[in-house]
Design goal:
The chain is mostly helical and 111 residues long. The chain contains four helices and no strands.
Length: 111
């Protein structure tokens, strides 16, 4: 895959692009070759969660600095937000939740 930045026109295109870019395979994660398909899925979900927590830590760093009177880092905050969104969309693909289902579920879970 090239490093070209496509113009994504909808959420499903973004999900598909992210899934194609961030593949859980043995080349990147050698442990996968020893796992069953169910264990591979669980590994992938867990790894995605670790990336999500990493971004939450970056958001917390920004907020904690501001709590103490610092300037924070708005660029870091924006980058963490986008990366968190990427992580969420990657997790949605792993869980076979398509964009339409995500969008339709928003009102249901806004209670």
């Amino acid at each position: 895959m090239t490093d070209e930045s496509p113009k994504l026109s909808n959420l499903q295109e973004a999900i598909d692009y992210i899934a194609a870019r961030f593949v859980f395979d043995e080349a990147s994660y050698p442990l996968l070759q020893k796992l069953t398909p169910e264990e591979r899925l669980q590994f992938s979900i867990n790894h995605s969660l670790q990336h999500m927590m990493k971004q939450l830590g970056r958001i917390a760093t920004h907020l904690e600095d501001k709590d103490h009177g610092g300037a924070g880092n708005d660029d870091l905050l924006k980058q963490a937000l986008v990366k968190e969104f990427i992580n969420i969309l990657r997790l949605s693909e792993l869980l076979n939740v398509e964009a339409e289902e995500l969008l339709e579920s928003i009102p249901k879970f806004m209670k």
